[in-house]
# Entry
Amino acid sequence: MAPRKLQVACAGLGRMGARHALHFLNRTPRAELVAACSPDEKELAWARQHLEPSGVRLYKEYDDMIKQEGLEAVVVATVTTVHAEQAIKAIEAGLHVLCEKPLSTSVEVSQSVVDAAKKKPHLKVMCGFSRRFDASYRDAYEKMDSGSIGRPSVFRSQTCDKLDPSGFFVQYAQFSGGIFVDCNIHDIDLALWYFGQDSMVKSVAAIGITAVQPELRKYGDVDNGVGMVEFWGGKMAYFYSSRMMAAGQHDMTEIIGTEGKLTVNANPAGTLVDMYESNGIRREIPEHYYGRFEQAFVTEANEFTASCLDNTKVPLKLTGAVQAVKIGCALQESLNSGKKISFDETGRRIEKATL
# Structure
């Protein structure tokens, strides 16, 4: 008798949605992609070519898809503004959920997903912070956790995208939540992982510029941002995000401890090939985020599937996704207000008196 496979549907077939769909279709042995949906005709045309021949049923409406008989889990990879709504609908329908980050650009709406999940504790609900599934980040965490660098005290991390002259990120800024919520959310989640999920923020401050895409200003966003986060207990984090890298994607992290430090991807490389030319030695790096983290996304799909089938805990807490959004939103507010934002030791915001 063949082992049971998790029956999965994918909502959204854009850049990441299509990749998620293919991961569950071809690279997750214990799962079977049985349905997918998108309101976009171009995305459906792609699905008719790449998914439908394998027996995947296609829908235009999400609400129709989650009613498919035998469905057990949904991957939410639609536009950010409907992540929470669709995740909650799936939970209420009794389905496991893997939701792309962030749950929402709002702390309150993000919390509503956690609240819905608490009502159905038998379901597995996870926000997809892909770097937690990357082999290098896991190795660095294990080394830090073993005490190899002493007490971790300073965390520096960046997400830097290759310049996209098409204007995509300008249009995306209308609903992305801003560069700290969309881009640095991964770095924020890593800081919470390495410093401890219960770490409490003491203050945040952020600055930014529009170096190459001034149109971002009308949406209160920038193409280069720097955020500083101070934690209670004597730790701090520095986040940098950029949309204008010339060479390609460069996402890296540095964890500095009292007895040493760890770096992840400080010197990025697409392959192990170095080109020795008349003007020097050159190395190519990944052009985009997926080029760096493809295997992490595959690992994420497989571990989520295993949690659902084996009834084990998902690899990361859903409440952490709300913490990350809270920090990202505070940084975005600081960016636009020019003010430092402070919190007490319980996480409650402190309103400073002004003269």
The first helix runs from residue 15 to 26. The chain is about 35% helix and 25% strand. The mean pLDDT is 96. The first strand starts at residue 6 and ends at 11.
